[in-house]
Amino acid sequence: MTHFAPVALPHANRLINHGPTVLITSVFEGRRNVMAAAWSMPVEFSPPRVAVVIDKSTFTRELLTAHGGFGLCVPATAAIDLTYAVGSCSGREVDKFAQWGIEATPGPVLGVPLIEANCLAWMECRLIREPHTEDAYDTCFAEVVSAAADSRVFAHGHWTLNGSNAALRSIHHLGGGLFARAGEGIQAQALKPA
């Protein structure tokens, strides 16, 4: 049973504004791939746009450039080993979805593979083509065209991180296969003038 619910596009950037490691999915002409990316971030609110670093020589970059879109999925703690695995080999040699039994469904707008099992959220992203930079830079810019999240941890446009959902936390790559798990949320209080 899925706990995923649509996320309003004005709130989509909140899915990654805390800097989680993400899984980037891509597909073109029957070939598909998934890779891990440690560097992604929101860059604009309306329409929601994101930036993600995807090496221009990778199979993922080849597929998403040909397709014009990609999936950006936020893995939960339970997906640490899978995240490390898909980030440690090339999809040119192996279908990573088949290799590790990853189930994906086509996105509602672009048809890119989206992963919900052991993930907290996903976004379908339409590549913003910048011909003068595509061959020079690893950073890709995209517009978010649809989004969904696990309603047990993200609802009404906000993350809810507390002791009752510790297993449903994002992961953050520290290098060399070491990850940190997001901690509990702490609510700021308004300061009174001195």
UniProtKB/TrEMBL annotation:
- Provide the species name: Hydrogenophaga atypica
Keywords assigned by UniProt, alphabetized: Flavoprotein, Oxidoreductase
Any idea what this protein is called? Flavin reductase family protein
Gene3D superfamilies registered for this protein in UniProt: Electron Transport, Fmn-binding Protein, Chain A (2.30.110.10)
Highest taxon listed in the record's lineage: Bacteria
Q: Name one GO molecular function term.
A: oxidoreductase activity
Its Enzyme Commission number? 1.5.1.-
Question: Which PANTHER family does the record associate with it?
Answer: FLAVOREDOXIN, FLAVOREDOXIN-RELATED-RELATED
